[in-house]
Structure formats: C-alpha cells, structure tokens
Known about the structure:
The structure holds two protein chains of two kinds. By secondary structure, chain A is mostly helical.
Amino acid sequence: MSIITTEQPGQPVVPHTRENFFVRLVRRESSLAWLFLAPALIILVVFMAYPFGYGIYISTTDAMVGFAGKNFVWLENYQRLLDDPIFRKTVRNTFIYGFGTVPFKLVLGLALALVLNQTFRFSRVFRAFLLLPWIVPTAISSLAFLMLYNGVLSPVSWVLVDWGIISDNINFLGDPVNAIVSLCVANIWRGVPFFGISILAGLQAVPDELNEAAALDGASVWQRFWAVTWPVIRNITLIATLFSIIWTFADFQLIYVLTKGGPANSTHVFGTYSYQTLGQTFIGDAAAISLYMFPILAVLAVMLLRYVRHDD
Amino acid sequence: MAMVGSNAKRNRWLGLYIPLSMFMVFLLFPFYWMLIVSLKPNSELLDTSVNPFLLFSVTLDHYAYLFTDTDFVRYTINTFVVTIGSTALALVTSIFAGYALGRFRFRGGTLMGALIFLCYLVPPTLLFIPLSQIVADLGLYNSYWSLILTYPTFLIPFASWLLMGYFRTIAIDLEHAALVDGATRLQAMRHVVLPLAMPGILSAGIFCFTLGWNEFLYALVFMSSGEMKTVPVGVVTDLIRADVYFWGSLMAAGILGSVPVAVAYSFFVDNYISGMTAGATKG
C-alpha cells in the first residue's frame, strides 16, 4: 500500500535514472497487480470457489431442504445414483443431446460463415439479424418452440396435414423419442449463429490473394477450402466446438421450458434432474447429480485451455 | 476476376442467395411466429381451419393484457435492476483485473489468467445447489443482491479476458511516456489507457448486459417470489396457464422481453461480434 501512496499527485516527481525507473516499476507492479486483481478474485472465491467446495461437502451428506440436521454419508449419494434408472437415462440423454446437436451446429455454422463472408448488398444487416437466435434469452425463444411443438397449434403439423403428408398432428413433446429430437432441433437453432459468427471472424484472416492465386492455378473450391481456408480457421473452429460442447452438456433453460425433463423423466439432463431433485428436497442427491458433470467438464476445460493458449 | 457471365451468376445463386434464404427462414421463423401470434385475435389463433402463417386481423389486446393483468412491468424493472447492477460490478472489477493481467508482469500472473478463464467454463448448473444454501445463509433470498452478487461469477471471467486482450493491443509506449512525465499508474490508466480502451469496455458491457438479461437458473432458484421474478423466469413460470388463451400474451411477452437485448446489441453489433471472438481467442 505504501508503494502507492508515495506516488500520489502533488508529490514532487523524483528524478531518477533509467534502470532505477524500471527497477521500481517492476517492484511496484507485482503488489499493484494483486491489488487490482483483488476485487474480482474476492467475488470469484466467495461465490464460485467456496460454493464448489461446499457443494462437494453437501453431496456427501443426506441433507434435506427444511431440515437442520444432516449426516455424513460418504459417497452413498453417488453410489445410489449409479443404480437410479432416471439418472442413467440422464447420462444417456446428455450424450445424445451433445452428439445429436454439436456436429449439426458445426456444419451449419461453417456454411453460414462461408455464406456471410461474401460481399453482397446489406450483408451487415443480414449478419446482425442472423445472430438473433444467439442473443435473445433462451427461455424466451424456447417459448416460441413450445408453441411450434404444440400438439394442437403447431404450424409444422398444420402444413404437413394440409399437404396430406400426415393425418394427425405430430406429438412433438409427449413422446420420448420425438421429444428428444425436438429438443435437439431447438438447440441446433440456437447454436448455429455462435459457430457462424466465430468462424466468420476466423475467415476474415484468410488472405484473399492466396485464395485468388490458388483459383488461378486451377484449384477447385474444395481444394482451396482445405489448403487455404481450413488451416486459418481450424483453431477457432475447435475452440467454438469445445465451448458448444460444454454449454450443451450443462444446458438447463431449453429443456426446462420445453419438457421439464418429461415425458416420464425421459429427457432429463444433469441440470434439470438436479433441479427436480432439489425440488423434492433431497439436496444432497441434487448436489451429487450436478457434480457428476465435473470430471467431463474438467477434461473439456483443459483441452480448451490448451487450444486458447496455442492461439497466442 | 476472370469469371463472368452465366457461370458466375449461377455460382452466386448456389453459393449465396439460396443458402442465405434458407438460413433466414430457419433462423428467423420463430421470431416471425412470435410476432404474428402476439398480434392475432384469439378467435383467429384457435381456429385451425385458418392458415396460421398469415395475419388476417391485428389486435394489441395481448400486449394490453400483459401490462394490465400481469406482473410483466414489475419483471422488467427487476431485470433491469439486476442486470445493470451486476454489469456495473463486473465491469469495474474486470477493468482492474484485465489491466493487471494484460499489463503487469508478476509471479503467478499467467496462472491467475488461466484460473479466471477456467471460471468462465463453470456452468451455473454445477453451482446452483450450494449457492442456493449460501444465498439463504446470507439472507439474500428474493433480494436483488442475490443476483447482483452471483452474476459477476460468470461475467467477470469473460469481461476480464476480453479486456486483458484489449489492453494488450494498446501501445505500452503511450503509457510509459505518461509515467516518465510524472503521472502515476492510476493517472496513466485513467487518462491514457481507459479512453483508448473504450470500445473494448463497451463490448464487455454489452456482453455482460445480455448475459445478465438472459440468465435463468440462478434467477429461478434465488428470486422465486412472484414480484421479484426476472422477465425470463416470470414469463415461463407465470404466464403459461391451464387454458389455451395464453399464447398471444406469452408471445407478446417474448417479443417485449427480447427488445432490450436486441436493442443493446443492434447499436453495437460490430463491437459485439469482435468482442465475442476476442474473448475466446486473444489473450
């Protein structure tokens, strides 16, 4: 602290040599750096690191909401969940949800980026509008899907019935298989713009001359993409993919709004099942359910950190 | 370019116009749907013999209902308070943290940068259970503070990384010149660095605003009493009713609830897009 007070305005500026200046700068810097970091770190420690540790503790107890007493039960909650059919389905759903959406988001997002990277009239307006699914609150856009998937009022069903393709409205959310496909489609819809914009930013770095030279040399569009474009956008594409896997894995809103994990607990992911369990007051089990996500999240996070560093 | 004539024209259709139209339909249809449903009279809405994609008569009844018969205005005020409060807190702390990470060389600096980045990857679904206990212990249930204090956990990591990258793009010589001229670190920061970093601070702010406005899980768990709900939570939990006459007002709430973020980002769309990728890639 004293280091800072010595340089309050109004103090005469002490003339000093060049080395002296840098020596003082370095010495001062480390303490000033921690001082600058302190407010952010305090918030992160109190509301993130501490809850994480506390969550591990809760997950090893039989605590219930509204009851003061709790007993330490070691890993019983985790063990019991392994035999819980709904939890098993939750794990399965999470993988279906991830593998059923991320590849589509990646391919469609790449296509979107390649389309938007061309020069055409009003391209900025299109770019702004096409990002909307990503900007708007998911809970709210999910409401639009809730209606698009409605058993009576769905316009999708209406068109298919009108064209004579089906005779009865589709039961989008009432059937387990339909429900999970419907959730995947809504998730893809929301995620495509994120891939699109991230990859588009990467495409700006592709040198035009190189592309044109390759074209003059007779390289096909496909060859040009792999030889010129892909190496430049590879890293950002991987980063966007890892982010998307993490977010999809830990999703809550979309499923909560559309199915709440139903029908008959068939579409839960970790977040919704944990929330439902909390609602049944079993807070120890609820904490264990959400902590089951941690190992996979940790692996993804380490991978992501490596790619982000690589990009420096 | 050598390509001219019908071949180039055909490529333009295949490579641009057709896929662009398909993306427009796929990505914007839900918004079109929300808009027309919010303006449709119930009689038309519930008549399945009428083409649902068109609007034959327009009514503002659903919007009026929202303002007179529901807590929507209250939800909107709550969301503004929480979002602006948490954005301000996150932005101020992140400017200092981002500056320290981007400018100072100190033992543990790289590690701190990596740890803060890792915080960005911690999803609310992992922490909401223990956090709900902590919020309860602090007596913050159904208080604005429950969200103003917890939202920064996901706003700070993002904002400080974005700002760290931004501060590094500002030439250090300018700052050194100010220091040599006798300015203090804080003066150099305030008068030299911050004005130059304004675009970065602005995009960090817009980002925090949209992330705060859109948050759902913490708001659902920590502010569950009727009059303290935020827009996304209130709309989802209170406006869906047992009868079928709620769709119009539900979609109207969807449209209105999207407006603040859509406006915030439309003004700064270019900042937003560059910020979105800078946060994840530069550092």
